[in-house]
Amino acid sequence: MKHVSFNTGKLRLSVTFAFAILFSLTGEAAETRCDKTLTVHLDLHAPSAYLDNNGKVTGMDAQLAQRILTQAGCQVRWHLIPMTGERILRSLQQGKFDVMIRASKTVERQEYAYFSDPYRDEVVGLFSREQLELPSAFSMVDALDKKLGMIGPVSGWYGDNFEALRSKWKQEGYYTAYPDAKRATDLLFITPSRGHLLLVDADIFYLHLGKERYDQVKLVGGNLHISSASLMFSHDSLNKNDLIAINEAIFQLQQTGELKAIENRYRPQSLQKLLKVNTQHL
What we know:
Layout: H1 2-33, E1 37-41, E2 50-51, E3 57-58, H2 60-71, E4 75-79, H3 85-93, E5 99-103, E6 113-115, E7 120-129, H4 140-145, E8 150-153, H5 160-172, E9 175-178, H6 181-189, E10 197-201, H7 202-209, E11 217-234, H8 240-255, H9 258-265, H10 269-277, E12 279-281
Parallel strand pairs: 1-4, 1-5, 8-9, 8-10, 11-12
Antiparallel strand pairs: 2-3, 5-11, 6-11, 7-10, 7-11
Helix pairs in contact: 2-9, 6-7
């Protein structure tokens, strides 16, 4: 019995040692799998990305992208030239930078870009001024039928349904386009308002809204629309093994809760509470 016990212990020790070596090698391989320096484009709009008091890049997407890419073994540098949405896509294709944040995966874009697995939730809300009386189940289709003015984004992908509605709003002359969420907030609150409803990124909207005006707006229809945001990479910037490493990094950081913690660090508590009870996926 002692002899058998001794061999079993020795076997366990050998297996443990082998696993330790294997873990070390695979861990090292994962860390060096993406050995590239990737240039990430950031539009400096808080809370997504902005410069802190020391001039250092920070913000929700800046920290998420940096954490994911460095976890995968990449080096990161920033591209901070202001651009429209269309110019960002064109510049990615032209190789002026490698990575676009908060990207929606479409068939057209896949012709020239890879997409990571989703790394965070992008929250889009349909808001109105508090004094506008609307049914609790009011939708964007209802708004179009009633010819209510819509303040909406000038560009960007918000799903097939919104694309069809946006075209109709424009054709009927009830659509006011905004270039960024700060301008969108201004358009809703100026007198006279440029629209009855505002479709906007909720995180950025709440930042520009300010706590003193939280009670002056309401969520229309009781829904915040949740879409998955990915990192978007030029085909020329990395290979599929790099993408595997990046997706593995996203999975690992999601499992530990680190990505969600960064996301919520920049999301107002009032919006987090709305998300718990009002969610609808695009």
